[in-house]
Amino acid sequence: MAKKQKTFRPKARVPRGFRDRLGAEIVAEREMLSRISAVYEAHGFDPLETPAFEYTDALGKFLPDVDRPNQGVFSLQDDDQQWMSLRYDLTAPLARFVAENYDSLPKPFRRYQVGPVWRNEKPGPGRFRQFTQCDADTVGAPAPYADAEMCAMFCDVIEAAGINKGEYFIRVSNRKIVDGLFEKIGLDGDDSAEMRLTVMRSMDKFDRLGDTGVALLLGEGRKDESGDFTEGAKLDDANIEAVLSFLKSGQADNPLGAIEAILGETNSGSAGLAELNGIQNAIPDFADRSILFDCSVIRGLEYYTGPVFEAELTTTIKDAKGRPVQIGSVGGGGRYDGLVKRFKGVEVPAVGFSVGVSRLLAALELQQGARSAAEGPVIVLALEKDQMASYQTMAAELRAAGIRSEVYLGGSNFAKQLKYADKRAAPLAIIQGEDEREKGEITIKDLILGSELSKQIEDNAEWREEQPAQFSVPRSELVSAVKKTIARHR
Does the reported pTM lie above 0.90? Predict the structure, then answer.
């Protein structure tokens, strides 16, 4: 007798580095992004949507050097043998869009975009392979005035999201100033490109490792807590001291003056300082803005060509157990005049920033307490099959009044319907059985009040007798009674 073949059943699982999201988190993110988008639109920026996939050679950051270009991006080969990749940010697609539509677009071109991006990187705690970005960019306007607008708008965005003035800073530096530093320490030649990258990576760790840690990375190297050793840049002591003084210039009373004293007469440094002074002079209320100049801001992306900026939270935030949580940067950006040039062959000035949606949302959640569950819909119980049209009419009346509502469609069992309403976080349940219908009434069960009172009443008999969270009203008063009950809780 032949052995019966076992039916294959795939294991239900989410891919590594990805996650499902439901309810309150999505609602909170949507509301925050709505407030941010309103700021962009108030400044005259138009929304743009680009496809999830771009041709891999158009992305530019992770060009393929192997048979399958999957280093850093998720890629596939189309039936025409061209490689496509999921976008890793929203800036590279913008550069492609501008280049493709250059002649028809107004210049400057101002757009904002919100959407998911994907990184083919090793996932970790709080580090996912898919996340949301929220960008604003101006293409076609040179420094420093568009950069000044970006810094001021960045402040407006952070505050619109829910962070108060004084709880964050927009830290501003300039890639040209970094180039001036490289001139000063003798690393400005073409043969020093790899060394410059090593030094910049070390400088970028200043806020985390401080003077001592960065000095080790600039010198012979550093061993971390796990024992792993990172090879250093092997600069001499004088150049290490120059780099550290540069990084600490933001702590001076006059940061721009301190930078000028360090860089002397370097060509790149002078150009960068002029742009930073231009930013300060172009913002009328600069002194009242949460903007500061800080040379320790070293944006990691290599295409930045001028001012760079980063939004960082400054207040101590604690989790539910009272432990301090370090949020750090919640967004950043800068000037990237060379990105569109890859397509056009001519330099097109551009500047923009990206909001770290997940980090900013996490900060707001910690700051305002645990996220409350999203309020579910009012549930109209369906106790009699032949009255379904009547139940749907009730739900329609509630929706017409702006009240989220639904009719239970899973059967007529009363207990199961109430259990469903609880799982849906419904504020109210609407009940109309035969008795209520004959009286021309409905019964409103206040599930929020009922949950609160159930914690205080120990006698089930007393609970059943009093029914303190349940009352009846004429059918004609359905909408007004529901509105009043919900308003009382809010």
Answer: no
Q: Are residues 123 and 227 in the same domain?
A: yes
Task: Give the span between the Cα atoms of 490 and 484, in whole angstroms.
Answer: 10
Neighbours of 460 (CB within 10 A): 9
Cα 361 to Cα 33, 132, 391, distances in angstroms: 10, 11, 38
Q: Is pLDDT at 277 greater than 50 in this prediction?
A: yes
My answer on whether 92 and 36 are in the same domain is yes
Q: What is the CATH number of the domain that holds 403?
A: 3.40.50.800
What does the radius of gyration of the chain's CA atoms come to, in whole angstroms? Answer: 29
Sequence-ordered list of residues with C-beta below 8 angstroms from that of 180, at least 6 positions apart, any chain: 263, 266, 267, 268, 269, 270, 271, 272
Full domain range(s) for residue 463: 378-489
Label residue 461 by pLDDT band (50, 70, 90): low
Does 65 map to a domain? no
What is the per-residue pLDDT across 46-104, written as a single tens digit (0 to 9) for each?
Answer: 999 999 999 998 987 544 444 445 568 899 999 999 999 999 999 999 999 999 999 99
The rounded distance, in Å, linking the Cα atoms of 228 and 225 is 7
Confirm whether 455 is domain-assigned: yes
What are the residues facing 380 on neighbouring strands?
407, 430
* Number of domains comprising the chain: 2
Q: Which residues, at least 6 apart from 375, have a Cβ–Cβ distance to it below 8 Å?
A: 404, 425, 427
CATH number at residue 322: 3.30.930.10
As given in the structure block, the two tokens for residue 389 are 């049209």
Q: Which amino acid is at 235?
A: L
Those residues with Cβ within 8 angstroms of residue 345's Cβ, 6 or more apart along the chain or in another chain: none
Domain boundary among 333, 368, 403: 368
Q: Report the distance separating Cα 278 and Cα 260, nearest Å.
A: 15
